[in-house]
Amino acid sequence: MDWNNATNTQIEEYHIPEIAGAGEIWFEIRSLNLIEGNYLLDLAVHSRDYQKVYNYHSQLYSLTMKTDRKDEGIFRPDHSWTREVKIL
Asked: The pTM is what?
């Protein structure tokens, strides 16, 4: 399986106290910069040591990105172009 990004609260050092009962955790993605195409997402809730999986959704969620640009690859990094012009 190819991964383009994998993160979790342990990697990000985001501590969640012991949970008892229902609740919500929000994960905000501010910018994807993906090029045009279809993308599948995996979402999981598991124990800190990865030994117990509470819920796992493998490729159940999809994103479709549309753009007028014809980039290649999987993402478009935030960038700019500059040039230096010498005056003769």
From this structure: 0.64
